[in-house]
Amino acid sequence: MADAKNDQALEPKPADNAPTAEETRAPGLPKNPSEEGRPPSGQQAQQAQEVDNLEPGESEEEESEEEVDPAEEIEDFDWDELHERYHRAIGTASAQELELLHEFAQLMDYFKIWADAGANQESDRTFHRLRTRMTYVQNSEQKLEKTRQHYIGVVRAFESALDLLRSSGFGG
Question: Where does this protein have compositionally biased stretches of type Acidic residues (predicted)?
Answer without folding.
Answer: 52-79
